[in-house]
Design brief:
By secondary structure, the chain is an alpha+beta fold. The chain contains four helices and six strands, in the order βββαβααββα. It has a single domain, classed as Glutaredoxin (3-Layer(aba) Sandwich). Strand 3, helix 1 and strand 4 form a beta-alpha-beta unit.
Length: 170
C-alpha cells in the first residue's frame, strides 16, 4: 500500500469506500485535493463546496478525495456504507471517497504522516475538513484548515494556479 521511503503522494493509496483502491499514482498529472471528513461535524456542509469544486474543475484536472475519519469528536461513527449513503443523499457527492481512516496519532494512515513531514507540523489535521492540495507531480503544495472553506478565495487561487501550471506543462 505504501512505502517507508515515499517520495511523494503518488506512493500512497487508500481503500475505496465502495471497494477497490484509490491509488494516488492513478492521478499523476492531475491536481488532487484530499480532505479528512466527518458526517456529524459543524463543517459537514463543506461537502457542498467540495462537490462544487469537483464539478467545476474536474475537466481541468482536479480530483477531490474525501477521507472520512472518526478521530475528532466522534463525528463519523457510521459504517462505510452509512457514510457513502449520507454523502450521496445529502450532498450528491460523486467524487472518490476512501473508507474511514485514522488521520492522527501513531496509527494514522501513512499519507497523513507524510503530508506533515512535507508541509510541517502546523499542517497536522487538528479537526475534520483539513484540506491538502497535491500537485500534478505528487508533491505537497499547501494545506488549508477546517476554517478555510472549499470555495474560499485563498483555496481557489492556489488551486487555479496549480491547474494552470499543470495545463501549461502538458
Amino acid at each position: 500500500m505504501t512505502h517507508a521511503t515515499s517520495q511523494n503522494a503518488h506512493d500512497f493509496s487508500f481503500p475505496a469506500i465502495d471497494g477497490g483502491q484509490i491509488n494516488l499514482s492513478d492521478f499523476a498529472g492531475k491536481t488532487v485535493l484530499i480532505v479528512n471528513t466527518a458526517s456529524a461535524c459543524g463543517f459537514t456542509g463543506q461537502y457542498d463546496g467540495l462537490q462544487s469544486l469537483w464539478e467545476t474543475y474536474r475537466d481541468k484536472g482536479l480530483v477531490v478525495i474525501a477521507v472520512p475519519s472518526n478521530d475528532f469528536g466522534a463525528q463519523e461513527t457510521g459504517t462505510n456504507a452509512d457514510i457513502k449513503s449520507f454523502c450521496e443523499v445529502n450532498f450528491s457527492v460523486d467524487f472518490p471517497m476512501a473508507e474511514k481512516q485514522i488521520v492522527k496519532g501513531d496509527n494514522a494512515h501513512p499519507f497523513f504522516n507524510w503530508i506533515i513531514s512535507e508541509l510541517g507540523s502546523a499542517s497536522r489535521p487538528r479537526w475534520n475538513f483539513y484540506k491538502y492540495l497535491i500537485g500534478p507531480d505528487g508533491n505537497a503544495i499547501q494545506w488549508f484548515s477546517s476554517m478555510t472553506g472549499p470555495e474560499s478565495r485563498k483555496l481557489i487561487r492556489t488551486l487555479e494556479a496549480n491547474l494552470t501550471q499543470a495545463q501549461a506543462a502538458s
